[in-house]
Amino acid sequence: TINVPIIDTDDWNATLEFKVWLHKPVGCELGRYLYLSRVKVIDNDYFPTNRFTEEMEQFGAANLLANGVQGIELLLEYCKLNCSLPGIEWRTWATVAVDQLQNFYYLLTIYLLKYVADDVLGPTANLPLLVAGNKELTLLAVG
């Protein structure tokens, strides 16, 4: 018998797998290919956190949304998990920042289309142009 101490935490972790090489048997004999044992430690916590333990046990993971758990609550728990893992937190924020660049580009595009349609080509010619007094160069500057 081999005892492997396990630290029990309330945080979710992926399944841990390791190998144990057996040698110098006492009171037994190792087979030709039976000197290696694979050990899997399966976490007993729920993904992403244990906040919805009762709901998971009662309804199952696939039926949470149908039984009153909001999707935004699950998303927030997932974000908490990402922010609690060392080395993952800064990558999460970097991904969020880069994703916001797409939103910024979309809003800038809408603003420029409105500017071109209303201020450059529209009926209100008294508004200032990017290139003062020249609509053609303003249109080239916008893009």
Number of strands: 2
Strand order of the main beta sheet, please? Answer: 1-2
Largest sheet: 2 strands, antiparallel
Ends distance? 74 Å
Shape field: elongated
* Count of runs of 4 or more consecutive helical residues: 4
> Rounded to an integer, what's the Rg over CA atoms?
30 Å
Share of residues in strands:
5-15%
Average pLDDT works out at: 87
- Chain oligomer state: single chain
Order of helices and strands: EEHHHH
Low-confidence stretches: none
Structural class: mainly alpha
Q: How much helix, percentage-wise, in residues?
A: 40-55%
Please give a structural write-up.
The chain has 143 residues and is mainly α. It has helices spanning 53-59, 71-84, 89-120, 135-142, and strands at residues 16-21, 36-41. The protein has a two-stranded antiparallel ribbon. The longest helix has 32 residues, at 89-120. The mean pLDDT is 87.
How is this fold's topology laid out?
Blueprint: E1 16-21, E2 36-41, H1 53-59, H2 71-84, H3 89-120, H4 135-142
Antiparallel strand pairs: 1-2
Descriptive terms for the model:
143 residues; single chain; two-stranded antiparallel sheet; mainly alpha; elongated; 4 helices; 2 strands; 8% strand
What's this entry about, in short?
This protein is mainly alpha-helical and 143 residues long.
